[in-house]
Amino acid sequence: MPESATPVRLRIDFVSDVVCPWCAIGLVSLEQALARTRGEVEADIHLQPFELNPHLGAEGEELVGYLGKKYGMSAERVADNQEAIRLRGAELGFTFDMECRRRTYNTFDAHRLLHWAGEAGGQRELKHALLRAYFTDGRDVSDYDTLVDIAASVGLPANRAREILGSDAYAEDVRTVEQFFQQQGIHAVPAIIIERKHLISGGQPVEVFEQALRQIAAAKPG
Questions:
Q1: What are the tens digits of pLDDT across the range 45-82?
Q2: How many CB atoms lie within 10 A of CB 180?
Q3: Could you report the per-residue pLDDT of 20-32, keeping only the tens digit for each?
Q4: Strand partners, 13
Q5: How many structural domains comprise the chain?
Q6: Structural domain containing residue 50
Q7: Is the Cα torsion angle 128, 130, 134, 138 positive or negative in sign?
Q8: pTM assigned to the model
């Protein structure tokens, strides 16, 4: 693309959960691909909700046992997968601390805050803060005090965050969006949908996202 050309603007819906390690990898990888295509592609990223563990109670569940039960994996297989995830994260500059991350949690309330942040501004900053809080620091991202603290850390008003968590605010919005993407056939995450029609699944390498962005931008009608 010539230096003077106007970048092509693409809509990207990033469907994910904040306790999904491949979602963290996918988001960082996508953002690095966008950095590589800066000047050629501009993206409007919409973070969309998906719950891996919608039936978990407030206390969550011990991670290794939960993964073993849900996916039929042995403790050894879980450990191997965790190490592969840790290494992929390290390549991208994202820290997975497997010693801190001992439990998995219900994330519905985190998604309510993310929906609010999509309106108030700072959605992607909040998403990154939630991912770091869970995967790097091992924090409970279902706990209200923790969620308020994370929201405040990215400049969102703590009082409003607490009001939202103490009410049903944005609950119906989140459920509606979740149902929409499930009806579109999204049953695993991350699911990256570009221009509402091009689907990329999983935490792909930066190069895969980079190639896709360039191809889709080149094919988009002027």
A1: 999 999 999 999 878 999 999 999 989 999 999 999 99
A2: 12
A3: 999 999 999 999 9
A4: 46, 193
A5: 1
A6: 8-219
A7: positive
A8: 0.95
